UniProtKB/TrEMBL annotation:
Residues 187-200 have a biased composition (Basic and acidic residues). It comes from the Bacteria. Residues 184-207 are annotated as: Disordered. This is DUF4913 domain-containing protein.
Length: 207
């Protein structure tokens, strides 16, 4: 091998060695950044708590997440919610999605109020004075006289959620609203008035 070829090969070897050192340094930097981010996340997370995204029980779609959320909620109701004398849960509370929704947001509001980093005493006061009593009152109203047998097939509580009344006419309202928000809404037709009357009679029978 000629001298020029030896020099060229040596130069390539040195370049490869430099690049290898740079890659190693970058790899070490990435690991350090990952560690720093983990420390920051841990510092922002309440002790014993996992960060929880804002989720609605009504819109739950992931079965595993729903199971986890309910397990967390049940543990919290025993530890916190049911310690208050005005807080009651009937045996069928899990069959009431509206009750689960109420308790779920109250549970998360409690976690935020007592967060070691972001929690404040005004938040704690608001939870005690307004949020918890309000939820307890609505939960009692929803399930105070209910029992599990009333959720069997054919009973009122076993029916699916009712559709929004006159939903088939929503397109007409949407078009009218976007065309001129200050104009009167379209005059109800005889068909719509008939549907509204049926809906009102059904509501009266249920109550």
């Amino acid at each position: 091998m000629s001298a020029p070829e030896d020099e060229q090969l040596a130069a390539v070897a040195k370049a490869v060695e430099r690049n290898s050192r740079r890659v190693s340094a970058l790899d070490a930097l990435v690991r350090q950044l990952a560690g720093d981010l983990a420390e920051v996340a841990a510092a922002l997370t309440p002790a014993g708590e996992a960060p929880t995204a804002v989720r609605s029980w009504m819109l739950a779609q992931d079965p595993e997440q729903a199971v986890t959320d309910l397990a967390d909620l049940i543990a919290w109701t025993r530890r916190v919610y049911l310690r208050y004398p005005d807080a009651v849960l009937s045996a069928c509370w899990l069959w009431h999605p509206d009750v689960i929704e109420e308790l779920w947001w109250l549970r998360r509001a409690h976690a935020e109020a007592f967060d070691p980093q972001a929690g404040t005493w005004p938040r704690v006061g608001d939870w005690h004075e307004r949020q918890r009593p309000g939820v307890a009152k609505r939960v009692r109203a929803a399930i105070g006289t209910c029992e599990l047998s009333l959720h069997r097939t054919g009973t009122a509580n076993a029916r699916p959620a009712a559709p929004a009344p006159l939903a088939d006419h929503a397109e007409l309202i949407a078009i009218a609203w976007t065309k001129d928000a200050l104009a009167p809404r379209p005059e109800p037709t005889d068909e719509q008035l008939h549907e509204a009357d049926i809906h009102t009679r059904q509501q009266h029978r249920r109550t």
